[in-house]
Structure formats: C-alpha cells, structure tokens
Design brief:
single chain; mainly alpha; two-stranded antiparallel sheet; 13 helices; globular
C-alpha cells in the first residue's frame, strides 16, 4: 500500500526516533516490540499492580501515558487488557477534585492580571496571562468530562474534539485572538463563566453562586474563581489532598513532557506532594 514496513535504527539526533526506510534486500526491522503486559505497564507508568495505586501515585503518573493506555487500539484482546486497564480509565473522585481545585486556584491567582497588564501598556504580559488562564480552563473541561488530556502537541486537537458546549471553545478562541484589551477581557471572563456552569452541572460540589463582577471595586471583570477553589477543597477534607499545595500534576504544565512523562523521575515528582 506504499508504506514502508522497515524502519531505521534509533536516531540519536532525533530523540531516538526510528524513521520509515524502504529497502529491497536484507533483514526487515519492522518496529514491533514484544513484551508481556506487565512489562508494558511498567514501561509506561512504572507499575503493573493496578490494584494498589495510591492517591499520590495518581499525581505522579504521566497523564499522556494514562491516555494511551486506556485509548490505544487493541486489535486482539485475549489477555483481557481492556478489562484490566478499566481500573485506570480515569482519575478517582478525590484525585479529580484535587486537580479541579488546582486549576481554579491557578486561574484565581492571575484572574485580574489580563486587564491590569493591559492597562499599563504591557500587551505581551496581558496576552501571556490570557493564554495561561485559557489553558487552565481547557484543562478543567477535560476534567469535568472525565477525559485524560494529551501532552502539548495534541492538546489543542483533543480539546477541539471534546464534547462540550461549542460556545466555550468559541469564547476561549476569541480571547486568545483578541488584539483589543476589552474584547480579550470580555471573552475570557465569559469563558470562565461557561466553565463555571460546567462545574455546577457536574454535581461534584455544592452549587457555587457566582456572577461576573468587578474585582474589589476596580474596573476589572472576574467571577472570583477562588469560590470554586473553596467549594472543591471542602470536599477534600479528610483526604490525603487536604494539605497538599494546589499545583496539579507536572503533566498539566506544557513543555515538561521530558520530565513528567518519564518514570525515572516519578520518585522526585512524588516528593512534591509528600507533606511529611
């Protein structure tokens, strides 16, 4: 069909990538790897014991690798792999709540700065913070829909396919494209309000009453994202997440895949959350 079934050796100048290469003679290198399922799990997330995953383990796992494990195609499944990976189909409720609280906390910490930067002529700063908040809103959408998010190369593609109200995507896109400060602020705060509605519809916490209002009397529009932080951490009382900093996972920061996706760093990552 015109596709090469032979591949080169790993390219040391391209992160070990193996490229298709047509050959007319010699031994074919088909880029097929043979492992036991346990070996495969250990390579992907550092453990094959899917029944003994701790709450902190979930924060250490690469979200991109979790996604590949539960969504990868299975052409034959005589080992009941799909049944086994159902155990990691998505984050447990307490982990999900922690991640939701973290995203709202990160939004809350900068919610007034898109307008503040713009008002002092810092257009670049305003755009950067707008993009950061937009990414956090997008990650919240994945969390509310119970879908793992891929790493940055495929993040936007997956978000565009996510089954959410198209107006959320439209408002985020409009905020990112806006060259006018007021237009940027209006679209971004409207996107926050729509994601806030997703939160309330989820039933994960008590309903959070909010409105678009001015930030402590200043001419800056917010929904006070910290209200959603407070409502969510209320549900985390009595769990291991009660006193852990609301930073989310390393997978949720773009550009950290060389760290967050590699299991040799898992012990170091885990220490970020160990409050003892």
């Amino acid at each position: 069909m015109g596709y090469s079934v032979n591949f080169t050796d790993p390219d040391p100048n391209d992160c070990g990538v193996q490229h298709p290469k047509f050959i007319n003679s010699g031994k074919v290198n088909p880029l097929i790897f043979i492992q036991t399922f346990n070996e495969f799990l250990n390579d992907e997330i550092g453990t094959a014991d899917l029944d003994s995953i701790t709450p902190l383990d979930w924060l250490v796992f690469s979200e991109h690798r979790l996604l590949s494990l539960v969504c990868g195609k299975l052409f034959v499944d005589k080992l009941n792999i799909r049944e086994q990976t159902a155990k990691i189909k998505y984050y447990p409720d307490d982990v999900k709540l922690y991640l939701i609280a973290s995203q709202w906390e990160l939004i809350s910490s900068e919610q007034a700065f898109v307008k503040r930067c713009g008002e002092v002529g810092d257009e670049i700063g305003s755009q950067i913070i707008c993009a950061r908040i937009a990414e956090r809103l997008m990650r919240l959408c994945f969390l509310y829909k119970g879908k793992y998010a891929p790493y940055s190369k495929w993040f936007g593609t997956a978000f565009n396919k996510l089954g959410i109200d198209e107006s959320i995507k439209a408002k985020i896109n409009a905020a990112l494209q806006a060259t006018d400060l007021i237009e940027r602020e209006n679209n971004l705060v409207e996107a926050q309000a729509l994601v806030a509605d997703l939160h309330n519809a989820s039933g994960l916490t008590d309903k959070v009453d909010y409105s678009v209002e001015f930030y402590f009397g200043r001419d800056i529009k917010v929904i006070f994202a910290d209200k959603f932080v407070d409502a969510t951490i209320e549900k985390l009382k009595g769990t291991v997440f009660e006193n852990i900093p609301l930073i989310g996972t390393m997978s949720q920061f773009g550009g950290l895949s060389s760290f967050a996706d590699e299991k040799q760093f898992y012990n170091q990552i885990k220490k970020l959350y160990d409050n003892e």
